Amino acid sequence: MASTCASCMSLMAAGVPIKKMVAGISCGLVTGDTDDDFIVLTDIQGLEDFFGDMDFKVTGTTEGITAIQMDIKIHGLTRAIVEEAIRRTREARLFIMDTCMKPAIAQPRETVGEYAPKIVSLTIDPEKIGDVVGQRGKTINEIIARTGVKIDITDDGKVSVCGTDEKMMDQAVEMIKVITTDFEEGQIFKGTVVSIKEFGAFIEFAPGKEGMVHISKICRERINRVEDVLTLGDKVTVVCLGKDKMGRISFSMKDVAQV
């Protein structure tokens, strides 16, 4: 029964949102020659369990019982014995919660523990599943390699991101959202410079998702070379300007502050 109390406290400490605190206690029994000749023992030890007639385990909350397990060595129990055992275990259960468990931790922590497994769920357009997976799984494997998460996708577009590092999980979710987004004017994105050309720089927002910033959209002042401002690997923030005359998505760095 100590394991019941300890596991309940462990769950709360880990941030698992259990509804009620649960404690457990065991009662024993020693009987005489008649039905009314008995003694109920609270919180029995091994010796009392071995020589006694009953091991009556009860777990529950302040509101009621959640589980009962009983071993007996006699033919049966009278109503009086059962009522006394229930009363004793409730009294002991409340005492344990009030004096031992609640002073240590009274309710589940608001956030899940740092090392506890976590799942984040989101829904994407089923038509975009192929974009997230990529050719021969290249895109999804790259997300997993970068973040260390596990990703499951169902045919109806439900995505589950599993892991222990909340920061890495958030990164994976953000990558999936970027991959499945339809770029619209005014959207802000953060990315990495992956290629530099004479006419501009290519920014990767997520695996398999890139956009170009024209040299004229990098700084407010005129620059002669992209390399004067950007280098490979730089982390930058850009704003989507919509489609250009050729139907390509256009991005800008210099207009971010104005959005």
Mean pLDDT, nearest integer?
Answer: 90
Fraction in helix: 25-40%
Report the total helices. Answer: 6
The tally of beta strands, per DSSP, is 12
Fraction of residues in β-strands: 25-35%
| Low-pLDDT segments | none
Q: Spell out the helices and strands N to C.
A: HEEHEEHEHHEEHEEEEE
Q: What is the chains' assembly state?
A: single chain
Taking all Cα atoms into account, the compactness measure Rg is: 32 Å
Please list the strands of the largest sheet in the order they lie side by side. 8-9-10-12-11
Given helix and strand content, the structural type is alpha+beta
Shape: rod-shaped
Distance between the termini: 60 Å
Biggest sheet descriptor: 5 strands, mixed, barrel
Describe the structure.
The chain has 259 residues and is of the alpha+beta class. Helix content is 29%, strand content 31%. It is built from six helices and twelve strands. The strands form three sheets. The protein has a five-stranded mixed barrel with strand order 8-9-10-12-11. It has a four-stranded antiparallel sheet with strand order 2-1-3-4, with helices on both faces. Strands 5-7-6 form a three-stranded antiparallel sheet, with helices on one face. β3 (54-60) and β4 (65-72) form a beta hairpin. The longest helix is centred in the middle third of the chain and has 26 residues, at 79-104. The two termini are 60 Å apart.
